[in-house]
Design goal:
The chain has 10 helices and 11 strands. By secondary structure, the protein is α+β, with helices and mostly antiparallel strands. The strands form 3 sheets. Strands 6-8-9-11-10 form a 5-stranded mixed sheet. A 4-stranded antiparallel sheet has the order 2-1-4-3, covered by helices on one side. It is rod-shaped.
């Protein structure tokens, strides 16, 4: 229903051409109306006041000449000897009587008069009024540059003139039609072609072509549409690549989960079967029970961390932010991990300022960041002897760094270091952890509007959390 309705409305191109024709026609009408209005205004509301012969009626009464006088004209009454007996308005010359030849010069049109008298400057309109005392003449005089006089033919009485008039009208119609055709061609070049290109590109996108690009030169508005379209397609390509990458990550994560769960579950199952069938010696029972408990604990840890990761990736999950002293929080975490670090033979260096450093954090989730980074450092620092934590505030930025002096993380692993199931030792060993610690830490920091980054500097692996203070 909507498509049929749009079809009835017609194309933009047709509407523009129709609009041009309507605009041209309305412009001509308005031009004539404006000219007519100007005449009405100059005539004081009556066109007759501008016609010299209408200023004096058949009985010799002079009407309202204010409009005529405003144009610089005046009226002279003459007797039958052509002497001036009265003046209506302000007389501009000093002539008091005329000869018939002089009057004839005033009556001539501009292109016929040749005289040195005032008739070269002023035009005259002569009207005779018959009265009981004889003929009285009224001479309406006005500057030739104000009111011009031309001959007008009555085409209704001349067949040749009618033919010329019809030919002129036809010629005007042809020129108007040609103007419309030229405008149509112009609009076709400037509007229809860009529109066709845009429509073609959108149709190709609808058919699944995500690599289409619009290439054409046009006015600024169409250029903006073209650039926006190309940017949109580029964004769609980026989204498609990101979607594909996320799909690959998801598939890899599923494989990793199945592997990490399958191994301890298989161990638990085989041990349980052996215990059920009485294949385990009495003195070995405690070892098997510990092994089952350990493997079950690993599965439980994996499930809990996977749940936490999925929770952090959920856009609807809301953190509970509170103003917290990061220094006090970091000291407490370091105290909890101190025995573990020193028990591994590591020198645990703590650089936390005495003055508080405050930030808006989730007190439940954010400590996992430092805990996971410390656990990562303790687990993979097999070649170094030192691990450290440092908190500092510079300007409006807060940085929490956890570092170790162990072997550098392989360069090929660094781009995916914060992806799930990436292990720094590149080994698929159950002792290598779940592979979710850094991914969880990165997501938590991201939820806080911060950034977690890794850098190898001064023979150290440095993980830095950056937050706004």
């Amino acid at each position: 229903m909507g498509r049929k309705s749009d079809h009835k409305k017609g194309s933009v191109f047709r509407q523009l051409v129709a609009g041009y024709i309507l605009f041209a026609a309305v412009s001509v009408i308005l031009l004539y109306l404006c000219m007519f209005g100007v005449l009405i205004y100059v005539g004081g509301g009556e066109l007759e006041s501008l016609a010299p012969y209408e200023l004096v009626d058949e009985e010799g009464n002079v009407g309202d000449i204010r409009s005529f006088e405003g144009l610089g004209g005046w009226i002279e009454r003459l007797d039958d000897s052509y002497h001036v007996t009265r003046v209506y308005g302000e007389k501009k010359d000093g002539i008091t009587d005329y000869s018939i030849e002089e009057l004839t010069e005033y009556l001539m049109t501009d292109n016929l008069v040749e005289t040195d008298t005032s008739a070269s400057e002023y035009r005259g309109y002569l009207k005779a009024v018959q009265g009981p005392e004889g003929t009285t003449w009224y001479l309406m005089k006005i500057a030739r540059q104000v009111l011009k006089m031309n001959y007008i033919y009555n085409v209704g009485t001349d067949s040749k003139s009618v033919q010329v008039a019809v030919t002129s009208i036809v010629l005007f119609a042809v020129m108007f039609l040609l103007s419309c055709l030229l405008m149509s061609a112009y609009l076709s070049h400037k509007i229809r072609r860009p529109l066709n290109k845009i429509t073609e590109g959108m149709e190709r996108v609808r058919q699944g072509d995500s690599k289409v690009r619009l290439e054409f030169e046009a006015q600024r508005e169409f250029s903006e549409i073209r650039d926006t379209f190309n940017m949109m397609i580029g964004k769609l390509e980026d989204d498609e690549r990101e979607k594909q990458l996320n799909e690959e990550k998801k598939n890899r994560m599923l494989l990793e989960i199945s592997h990490d769960i399958k191994t301890p579950v298989a161990t638990i199952k085989s041990s349980a079967n052996a215990l059920e069938e009485g294949l385990i010696k009495y003195e070995e029972l405690s070892r098997y029970y510990r092994m089952i408990d350990k493997k079950a604990g690993r599965v439980n840890t994996l499930v809990n961390e996977l749940f936490l990761l999925l929770k952090m990736e959920d856009g609807d999950y809301q953190m509970q932010y509170e103003r917290t002293d990061l220094c006090e929080m970091a000291r407490q975490i370091c105290a909890d991990h101190y025995e573990e670090m020193t028990g591994r033979g590591l020198d645990f260096q703590i650089q936390i300022p005495e003055e508080p450093v405050y930030a808006e954090i989730d007190r439940k989730e954010f400590p996992r960041v430092i805990e996971n980074l410390l656990g990562n450092a303790a687990k993979y620092n097999q070649t170094g002897r030192t691990t450290g934590v440092m908190v500092r505030q510079t300007g409006g930025k807060i940085r929490i760094s956890v570092w170790d002096d162990g072997r550098a993380i392989a360069k090929e692993l660094q781009p995916a270091l914060f992806d799930p199931f990436v292990r720094g030792d590149r080994a698929r060993l159950t002792s290598g952890g779940t592979g979710l610690g850094l991914a969880i830490a990165g997501k938590i920091v991201e939820k806080h509007g911060g950034k977690l980054a890794y850098v190898r500097q001064e023979e150290r692996n440095i993980f830095t959390v950056s937050l706004d203070g």
